[in-house]
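Tokens as discussed.
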């Protein structure tokens, strides 16, 4: 899977994303923010902030930074920040999740909502989240993982080749991701409609893996 495929897909979906993917993913967004943003004054990074649907749910005493590879999605996020007067949002930047421009230990918590299966290299993506998060900080992910239901799993495997061309890992086993990512998971719970997605609450154990 190539990064350009993901960028192209989000450029196409930027206009309709809030309608198509907004309400169905809202429970996971709200719960992930609640889990990560549990203390006053936190510095928080949201990786793959998209159109900013999660931004209104953060505490007003937090300091939130968002990144995304899609300039079109971020343009909508910036308009949302202005329209809803979200003063707790410090900045929104076009940035690759696998090559972040932040220093080590820059954030108290890091979130990645529906991102892990759309990055070309999930292990590098996880290593970057660990690098920019403080030791002992919270990392929260919400994502689709390969279903345990045999019928759904069969369909996901059949769709895997097509999905790669639109920038999405349809066949995305949880155990493989956990092994490759090195994330120290403390809790896994079902999320969103029918529990098809999973919320992972992790504690950042240093050192993070190093990628060249």
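Sequence:
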């Amino acid at each position: 899977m190539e990064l350009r495929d993901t960028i192209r897909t989000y450029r196409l979906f930027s206009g309709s994303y809030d309608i198509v993917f907004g309400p169905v993913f809202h429970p996971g967004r709200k719960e992930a923010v609640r889990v990560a943003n549990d203390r006053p004054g936190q510095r928080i990074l949201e990786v793959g902030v998209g159109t900013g649907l999660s931004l209104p749910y953060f505490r007003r005493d937090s300091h939130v930074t968002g990144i995304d590879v899609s300039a079109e999605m971020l343009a909508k996020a910036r308009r949302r920040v202005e329209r809803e007067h979200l003063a707790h949002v410090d900045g929104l930047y076009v940035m690759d999740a696998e090559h972040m421009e932040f220093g080590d230990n820059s954030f108290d918590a890091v979130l990645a909502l529906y991102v892990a299966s759309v990055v070309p290299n999930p292990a590098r993506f996880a290593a970057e989240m660990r690098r920019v998060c403080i030791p002992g900080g919270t990392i929260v992910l919400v994502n689709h993982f390969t279903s345990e239901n045999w019928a759904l799993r069969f369909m996901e495997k059949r769709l895997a080749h097509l999905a790669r061309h639109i920038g999405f890992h349809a066949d995305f086993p949880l155990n493989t991701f956990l092994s490759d990512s090195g994330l120290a998971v403390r809790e896994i719970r079902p999320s969103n409609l029918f529990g098809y997605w999973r919320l992972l609450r992790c504690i950042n154990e240093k050192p993070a893996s190093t990628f060249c």
